[in-house]
Amino acid sequence: MIQGPANLAFVLQACPPARIGVAPALDKSLKFAPAQFLDDKCGSGIGFPVAFAPVFAFYGLACRQRGRRGCRKQCRQQASAVAVKAGSVDSVGIIGCSGAVGQEMLKCLENCDFPTKAVKLFAKRSAGQVVESAKFGQITIEPFSLEKVQECEIVLMAVSGGFSLEWAKQIAGGPKNTVVVDNSSAWRYNDEVPLVVPEINGEKISSASLIANPNCTTAIGAMALWPLHQKYKLKKVLMSTYQAASGAGAEGMAELENGVAEWAKTGVCPKPEFFAHQLPFNVIAHIDDFQENGYTKEEMKVTWELQKIFQLSEDVKISCTAVRVPTLRAHSESITVETEQPTPPDEARELLRGAQGVKVVDEPDKKTVPITSQRYWPIQCGGGAHSGESGLWKERP
Ligand SMILES: NC(=O)c1ccc[n+]([C@@H]2O[C@H](COP(=O)([O-])OP(=O)(O)OC[C@H]3O[C@@H](n4cnc5c(N)ncnc54)[C@H](OP(=O)(O)O)[C@@H]3O)[C@@H](O)[C@H]2O)c1
Fold first, then answer.
1. S-S: 72 plus which of 60, 177, 204, 217, CB 3.0-4.6 Å?
2. pLDDT in the model for residue 330
3. Are 65 and 187 in the same domain?
4. 49: cis peptide before it, omega within 30°?
5. Which residues are bridge partners to 243 per DSSP?
6. Residue 119 or residue 382, greater confidence
């Protein structure tokens, strides 16, 4: 056991947000089948916890609508098992169903057997198109209208922050007591709106009619940091992220793929249009706008959101460096923490092993990499170096 305040470093990988690999352009008829979910050729992945955790938040809501005591806890316990069997609502709506995130949301509802009888889909340009859902049948996409959306007990928003700012509060409530879960950043920093990762603070959904979903980078890190914080109390968090093109949406992935293809053909990468710099064969320490303090907004989101979700005091220092890397999917993070209490590495590892939605993968010969992490439900946590009073101590390479 290492005495005194200790540092623990570990590496995380997780499939990034729902905004992955789904071309925004719709076919006349979209076909979603559960098998696609695990199919390597599937053009999309699943974002846990970013896309998936909200589904369990919704599941908690479904239970709430039925007044089932203890269901939410059960839901959180079952999150990694994708077992949603109890409770039911009549209808869940997805606004922005044709977008990269919205398409993933429908897949989540299908694949986790979310307890709703029906799903209603809303979009703008895609209104009128028919989606073939393996679980919910043929669904015609409707144009957004407040009246129609409020026919749903739960509404998932996968639209722009501006749209959400205008409509989310108006949708919440109404005749069906509609609960809105918003995927944009519009409400994350509003004191009246809970920012929820179900495994961490799922109890916050119990009284809220509008719930915000955290940034992908925050959610991934939070899943591993939460058990450590509960036991050892975080003092400092230093995070470096290695974020895949998928975090920038389908356009970002296309720019990476097209850039690599063009380079293979001509030896020259096309001028970047979507990223600040050429992404193929490069890394870009610039995601979102720079703030006055020198950090980018993407980096500050981690600080702001961890503070809110964990209810951290300002004494806990958080610093993030966010870097775009030329991988298609699965963000990686390296996190070093300093804790108030001693952090025996074996104990900390056991703690993470028992954490919902976290898989410890630290065998040296089975290292986790983005390619193998994509389309994988839990976040994968590996590595682990420990620096005690006697200097740097490395647990695993
Ligand atoms: N939490 C996370 O990790 C995370 C990750 C990625 C993105 N996001 C956020 O999620 C949101 C969606 O991102 P995305 O990449 O899916 O965007 P996207 O691909 O551009 O999709 C936008 C969707 O909104 C629909 N839409 C636009 N205007 C509308 C209107 N007036 N009425 C109804 N539907 C309308 C679009 O429908 P049509 O195309 O048919 O017009 C489309 O379905 C954004 O706020 C984004 O920042 C969050």
1. 60
2. 85
3. yes
4. yes
5. 324
6. 119
- Cα(179)–Cα(123) distance, integer angstroms: 19
386 belongs to the catalytic site = no
State the pLDDT confidence band at 375, using cuts at 50, 70 and 90.
low
CB atoms within 10 A of CB 45: 26
Token readout for 37 is: 């979910």
Kindly provide the residue ranges of all beta strands, DSSP E only, lying in 158-272, ordered along the sequence.
179-182, 210-212, 234-243
Catalytic residue, from 108, 331, 381, 386: name it: 331
Give tens-digit pLDDT for 217-270: 999 999 999 999 999 999 999 999 999 998 887 788 899 999 999 999 999 999
Q: Looking at the domain assignment, is residue 39 inside a domain?
A: no
Active-site hit among 63, 71, 152, 216: 216
Kindly state whether residue 244 falls inside one of the protein's structural domains. yes
Residue identifier of the C-alpha nearest atom 15 of ligand 1: 100
Residue 261 identity (one-letter amino acid) = A
Strand-pair partners of 9: 336, 385
Residue at token pair 């719709």? 26
For every residue of 362-393, DSSP letters joined together read --GGG---HHHHTT-SSEEEEEEEEEETTEEE
Residue 272: is its pLDDT beyond 70? yes
Model confidence at 7, pLDDT cuts 50, 70, 90, reads low
Q: For the purposes of burial, counting CB atoms within 10 Å of the CB of 281, is it exposed (0-12), middle (13-18) or buried (19 or more)?
A: exposed
Domains contained in the chain, number: 2
What pTM did the predictor assign? 0.80
Which range marks the domain in which residue 354 is found?
7-16+219-394
Token readout for 59 is: 């599941």
Q: Give the span between the Cα atoms of 263 and 256, in whole angstroms.
A: 11
Query: Which residues, 6+ apart, have CB-to-CB distance to 266 below 8 Å?
Result: none
Residue with tokens 């999309």: 44
What spacing in Å lies between the alpha carbon of 42 and ligand 1's midpoint?
A: 20
Domain annotation covers residue 29: no
pLDDT confidence band for 38 (50 / 70 / 90): very low
Query: Whole-angstrom Cα distance, residue 199 to residue 220?
Result: 12
> What's the half-sphere exposure (Cβ side, CA atoms, 13 Å) at 183?
30
Ligand 1 binding residues, C-beta < 6 A: 17, 19, 24, 50, 95-102, 122-126, 144, 158-161, 163, 183-184, 213, 215-216, 249
In 3D space, the residue among 239, 245, 238, 91 whose CA is nearest the CA of residue 153 turns out to be 91
Active-site residue, 277 included: no
